[in-house]
Amino acid sequence: MRIVSIGEILWDVFRDGELLGGAPFNFAAHARRLGHEVVFISAVGEDERGRKALERMAELDLSPAFVRRVAGAPTGFVSVRLDRAGQPDFTIHRPAAYDCLELSASDLRQLAGFQPDWLYFGTLHQMAPPIRALTRTPMASLPARRFYDVNLRPGSYTPALVCELLREATAVKLNDGEVASVEQFLGWSHAGLEEFCRGAAREFGWQAVCVTRGERGCAVLVGGIYAEHGGYRVRVADTVGAGDAFAAAFLHGLGAGWSAAQIAEFSNRLGAVVASRAGAIPAWTLEDCERLGSTSIESGKK
Hints:
It is built from ten helices and 13 strands.
């Protein structure tokens, strides 16, 4: 598959160091490792963190062709505090370089030539009005399906924006807490996850939706077929980036034409592997995932 991911690239700053992250960047890195062609669109500052970010992208086999360097704006960073269970609490420092992204007419022509199958976006980056306007251009001009990772962060969303993005999506990923938020935004009430997934898919015309549930696994609806998977128990290092790995695995399964049950299982497996290792983009292989389950996994490379 060919995937365009647009959004924030930033440094997750922990008490004992910092690691490169940002949900759209993490997703892009994991999708690339799964063998897909990925274009990542963002911006960094003309600072040391920006330089290191571009170096790390090269190490991850991601092209920096659409990552702009912005004078006068710092490369994004987030302060991360982990609780005893490895669950993160984020403090997002803005404005940041990724809020200042611009695309030229030449950039848009190159993206059209790439002919992506999917366009990935989240909520945080879309909060900046210029970025929201900028993203509408490839949405309108590229015949790609749209994958929206809701990924709500305090102070980085509005109900109106979330509802707008839900209506623009072809496929959506949420966690169970975000399901409750979306129901509140829309004035909905559902008896359970299956009813929510089916109702939202009908309302918004989604082809697929997945809901992550932490250690309880996930729920997936694909083409009207619903499945749940209870997940895999691992020793958690931290959960930063686990949901982004899940998102990449989910899209990988959709592209491969897997069943809802297969997608749910593999997505849980990859998310569990990442959660068992420190950082948002730890080293992993498909063999690592296969050790947690019995289903054979094929690369997305073509």
